[in-house]
Amino acid sequence: MKDTNKHQGLRNQLVKLLREKGITDENVLAAIAKIPRHLFLDSSFEDFAYQDKAFPIAAGQTISQPYTVAFQSQLLQVNKEDKVLEIGTGSGYQTAVLYHLGAKVYSVERQNELFKQTSVLLPKLGIRPKHLSFGDGYKGLPNHAPFDSIIVTAGAPIIPPALMAQLKIGGRLVIPFGDKNQIMTMLIRKDETKFEKHEFGEFRFVPLLENKN
Ligand code: SAH
């Protein structure tokens, strides 16, 4: 669990690259400069951890590309103390970014192996989400709703109605929407029934699966 000057140097280069690619939110960039991404990956990927790439993690899943993490985090416009729901904890890296932005993070993962790993890893790194949950993200977390914002980190063939229902008025749902490729989609809740839709181009994610382990 070592984080060295060399890792910090590589993180600074990654942040520079993300700026060049158009990420402007200083809080998001500061979080990426701080979080040791190499500790969220298998040690065999350590040398590549600060490339702007997705990598395989356990259970056939992937840690999202840093640009994607930054892009989604920037769209959320997290304020300190916001209640944020993440669907797809995966490696826990996005969870860590949200935590560094000051959010009270609730995160759901359907792969037990990943749920168990992050339950151990995150506290070790001083990252304390409010709630890590093993279950089906399509359902959200009705007992903890409503949320200031919701981020889905897997490709969703539908926009789960439960997630829309668990969003506060004025809140944002950021979700890669689509079957094979996904369009990064943001819904802003205007009132009980009205949602404003914004689209931000194509991304590629592992699929958001129904719970049938
Ligand atoms: N934020 C993660 C992304 C991991 S990939 C990271 O950067 O590491 C997407 C994750 O979503 C996978 O771990 C996958 O198991 C999870 N997932 C897929 N369908 C899900 C569902 N219905 N509910 C909760 N998690 C789900």
From TrEMBL:
GO terms for molecular function: protein-L-isoaspartate (D-aspartate) O-methyltransferase activity. Keywords: Cytoplasm, Methyltransferase, S-adenosyl-L-methionine, Transferase. It is found in: Cytoplasm. SUPFAM superfamilies: S-adenosyl-L-methionine-dependent methyltransferases. InterPro entries: PCMT, SAM-dependent_MTases_sf. Pfam families: PCMT. One of its GO terms (biological process) is protein repair. GO terms for cellular component: cytoplasm. Its main location: cytoplasm. The keyword Cell cycle does not apply. Signal peptide: none annotated. The active site is at S64. It catalyses: [protein]-L-isoaspartate + S-adenosyl-L-methionine = [protein]-L-isoaspartate alpha-methyl ester + S-adenosyl-L-homocysteine. Its EC number is 2.1.1.77. PANTHER family: PROTEIN-L-ISOASPARTATE O-METHYLTRANSFERASE, PROTEIN-L-ISOASPARTATE(D-ASPARTATE) O-METHYLTRANSFERASE. Catalyzes the methyl esterification of L-isoaspartyl residues in peptides and proteins that result from spontaneous decomposition of normal L-aspartyl and L-asparaginyl residues. It plays a role in the repair and/or degradation of damaged proteins. Belongs to the methyltransferase superfamily. L-isoaspartyl/D-aspartyl protein methyltransferase family. This is Protein-L-isoaspartate O-methyltransferase. The gene is pcm.
